[in-house]
Design brief:
Blueprint: E1 7-8, H1 10-19, E2 33-34, H2 35-38, H3 45-56, H4 69-81, H5 93-99, E3 114-118, H6 145-158, E4 162-166, H7 176-185, E5 189-194, H8 201-210, E6 217-221, H9 227-234, H10 239-252, E7 258-262, H11 271-280, E8 285-289, H12 302-306, H13 310-326, E9 332-333, H14 346-349, E10 371-374, E11 379-381, E12 395-396, H15 402-407, H16 413-416, H17 431-434, H18 439-446
Parallel strand pairs: 3-4, 3-10, 4-5, 5-6, 6-7, 7-8, 8-9
Antiparallel strand pairs: 1-2, 10-11, 11-12
Length: 477
């Protein structure tokens, strides 16, 4: 990695020292330690991590097993570039490493870590739950190749870490691979979100030649292990076979795609058969997302028809937790995140200690504080889930630069100010972990970002009846 191959930050060595449980006497203490001085015979930061683990018998990230090169390299970039916007107090590197978003000590990072860039409204699928109602051309002028490149230039100048390409379907754009190549010239990480159906062998090999397999990635949507399940959710017959072919093309080119599934009443009961299917297909990372009341599910009965009941949620949560532990090192099942699932699940709550009265150190996500989203027409939002709400738009890259928009704090007040918990969240003993859940889901259902996440069925101790703004409470004995 450019800028990381010859020098290792003292902060990283301190982290290694802390995690090594005292087995650190030999670790050097100088501020600017080179790889040759470490005497480990390594060439880059990934090799350094592996060598340090082997030499000092340490594990950098206990939850994920072997050291996470992506996380450590993020830490290195943040430390080197001082990606902090100070307020009354400073945020040190350890806080940043643990939270990666503001923690009440700062309002926002000096620059976003991630820029989500949706390249097109067009899509060859018709997903029944698409949060942006993608499909045919919306009639809005999409960003040109040169406009996208200008955004990437700005990302490099701002020290952004990662650019995410989405849509619509990003492979509908003929210039996608050229944009990927341009992004890599800017020393930016890439994460591509796709339905996989347009990834030919030739495109897969071109991608593999461009992407860094340690830090770049591509996510393909697959909602079941059988065509009838996947195709029904994705709205196009034959989609399953094309998506699976795309996944295999990526694997044959040397890439390891992430598989993403949206849970609904149509497919949740089939997830148990999907796990062995993914393992057989050589998938290493499996992400599970909740249904969003956005796009085609906004202001319609479809959301109520498709969303899981409390009992269904509990069933699939318990299953996924068991499999996550059972298959550790074989299949990584995505981490739990308040934006994905709130603290409804008994299974999830059983793995943490109640923290009555303890305030969370951060909000549930980094929208507007460590990340932003740019729509296909150049509109800028804190999060791509907000596209359906023009009143939440903070500007356009066709009118201002990303730096100008990010630095205008008044545009982001709604997202950079900590929300005061309301309703049942106010007295919940799990607020420290949940952080009130996803703001945009609360906004979509209640018109209030501070309202309790409607996906939370948990009734805090002392409260009775129906959860405010939510569904019938899932009572916990």
């Amino acid at each position: 990695m450019k800028g990381l191959s010859n020098s290792i930050d003292q902060a990283i060595l301190n982290l290694v020292r802390e995690k090594s449980s005292g087995k650190n006497a030999e670790l050097p203490l100088k501020q600017n330690v080179t790889l040759s001085e470490l005497g480990l015979g390594v060439l880059d930061i990934y090799d350094l991590i592996v060598a340090l683990e082997d030499r000092y018998q340490i594990t950098i990230d206990e939850q994920e097993g072997p050291a996470d090169a992506w996380t450590l390299e993020t830490l290195s970039r943040c430390v080197k570039r001082k990606l902090l916007q100070k307020s009354s107090q400073t945020l040190n590197w350890k806080d940043l490493f643990e939270n990666l978003i503001f923690s009440g000590k700062v309002r926002a990072l000096r620059t976003p870590l991630t820029v989500h860039l949706d390249l097109t409204f067009r899509c060859n699928s018709r997903c029944i739950f698409c949060y942006d109602s993608s499909g045919a051309d919306h009639g809005r002028a999409e960003l040109t190749t040169e406009e996208v490149k200008r955004i990437l230039d700005e990302c490099e100048e701002m020290d952004v870490v990662e650019v995410q390409f989405g849509g619509g379907e990003p492979f509908m754009r003929e210039d996608l691979l050229d944009l990927v190549a341009y992004t890599k010239k800017k020393n930016l990480r890439i994460f591509i979100l796709t339905n996989g159906t347009l990834i030919t062998e030739e495109k897969a090999h071109r991608l593999a030649a461009l992407m860094d397999r340690r830090f770049d990635n591509i996510q393909v949507s697959l909602d079941g292990a059988r065509p009838e399940i996947h195709d029904k959710q994705r709205g196009v017959s034959g989609n399953f076979e094309k998506a699976l072919a795309g996944i295999r093309n990526l694997q044959q080119s040397g890439l390891s795609p992430v598989v993403n599934t949206v849970l609904t009443k149509l497919n949740y009961a089939h997830i148990p058969e999907m796990i062995p299917f993914l393992i057989e297909e050589g998938i290493q990372v499996f992400r599970v997302l909740r249904l969003q009341p956005l796009g085609r599910c906004l202001n319609s009965s479809l959301y109520d028809e498709l969303k899981l009941t409390p009992e269904q949620s509990e069933y699939i949560f318990e299953f996924l937790f068991e499999k996550r532990e059972e298959l550790f090192g074989q299949l990584q099942i995505s981490k739990d995140n308040a934006c994905i699932f709130p603290m409804s699940s008994r299974t999830l709550r059983s793995r943490v200690l109640p923290q009555p009265g303890r305030e969370p150190v951060s909000d549930a996500c980094g929208a507007g504080t460590s990340k932003l989203a740019v729509g296909p027409d150049g509109s800028v939002f804190p999060c791509s889930y907000m596209y359906e709400f023009p009143e939440l738009r903070v500007g356009s890259v066709r009118e201002n630069t990303l730096r100008e928009l990010w630095d205008r704090d008044e545009l982001w007040t709604l997202y950079r100010n900590r929300l005061t918990p309301t309703g049942k969240c106010r007295g919940c003993e799990y607020l420290y972990y949940c952080k009130t859940g996803c703001r945009i889901i609360s906004y979509a259902i209640h018109g209030d970002m501070g309202a309790p996440d409607p996906g939370c069925y948990y009734e805090p101790a002392g409260l009775q009846g129906v959860c405010e703004g939510g569904d019938q409470a899932l009572r916990v004995a």
